[in-house]
């Protein structure tokens, strides 16, 4: 009987331990994986593309169950957009693109990103569309009448520029249609958005199955996604977002620095400062600081430009202008080279960035300011050159007459040696001279100077 009681007590203890383990482990089992929130605010370029790519990779490493990409963009560079889309398509966890807050838009490149995402959502009062690729480069005049579009919606144009535009249009249409078919969204409207620059408000986008849902804010979106099944890299993922913590990730110093460097205005200023720094270093060897600062600025400016769609004709004009301005400093032409350099610099700056996308143009005010500063520097250089030209020659042998010298050894009349302006010259005098006596040069016969005592009248 005692043995049965002991066995019963042991069973109770085991049951209690199991109950406690289940009780303690239940909250951990119920805890949902966190959600990462990334933000695209502004034109899509190398900086925020790098931020999104790294943010998705970090969210996957940290065990997040979902990435919400909050979007408000007028468009962006094609290469940057494709980097973001590649990161979404290869992501091991679902990505929800969300156009927010109210008044935001996902235009042009933003439309492609929404179509590529596992989940597409919009806030009320937002819009999507106008996905026509922007013409890049300097082409024919776009202000005149155009021929009627063909059956595919592309303008009829037999020129090379027209052929290139059609290729870009067809490529963009096929790209967005492929993304729509992958995600089960409205492929026909996506293609029309590319060919006809159509846009939709959030309510109509939901009706036409361009997006999956609408939500007023991020908490509402998280609540609406709870229990939703999403296909990720061939496997089905069920979202458990009801009690999931939401972690917003802001751009770090690297993104901010890259954003500054890829700003066309900043890149142009850095490159200009770099060239002038090196020019001042060449004009005053040994100053060191202008050369070091100039080299750093030039490299940073060139790095920023190589990430942007640069028109190489514009870059060539800028380099030609800088070469002319440097030539004015070293080979003064009294302003001719300098003014030509300013004109070439302004022309190159105006055509430097090879795109019409918003936020990627060079403001005329900046170009004018740089041109004025360059002109002022050139005017100062030309003024110095003119003053130097009018100045009497100094330091030549003919300038020694009238100079004061110091006798190096005593003479009783005849020839000797003297220090003239830091140089040792042979002298001749008709009067005796003593060592260290001060004499004046009164004539020159080749390498021989005629001198008399300084107090001689």
From TrEMBL:
Keywords linked to the UniProt accession: Membrane, Signal, Transmembrane, Transmembrane helix
Highest taxon listed in the record's lineage: Bacteria
Location in or out of the cell: Membrane
InterPro entries, per database record: ClpP/crotonase-like_dom_sf (IPR029045), Membrane_assoc_protease (IPR052165), NA-bd_OB-fold (IPR012340), NfeD-like_C (IPR002810), NfeD1b_N (IPR056738), NfeD_membrane (IPR056739)
Record membrane topology: Multi-pass membrane protein
Signal peptide range: 1-31
Residue ranges constituting the NfeD-like C-terminal domain according to the UniProt record: 398-453
Biased composition (Basic and acidic residues): 148-159
Pfam families: NfeD (PF01957), NfeD1b_N (PF25145), NfeD_membrane (PF24961)
Keyword Aminoacyl-tRNA synthetase attributed: no
Protein name as catalogued: Nodulation protein NfeD
Region Disordered, annotated ranges: 133-164
Predominant location: membrane
Species assigned in the record: Massilia agrisoli
Domain NfeD1b N-terminal intervals: 39-135
Boundaries of every NfeD integral membrane domain copy: 266-380
Alphabetical list of SUPFAM superfamilies matching this protein: ClpP/crotonase (SSF52096), NfeD domain-like (SSF141322)
TM regions (residue ranges): 257-279, 310-327, 334-353, 365-386
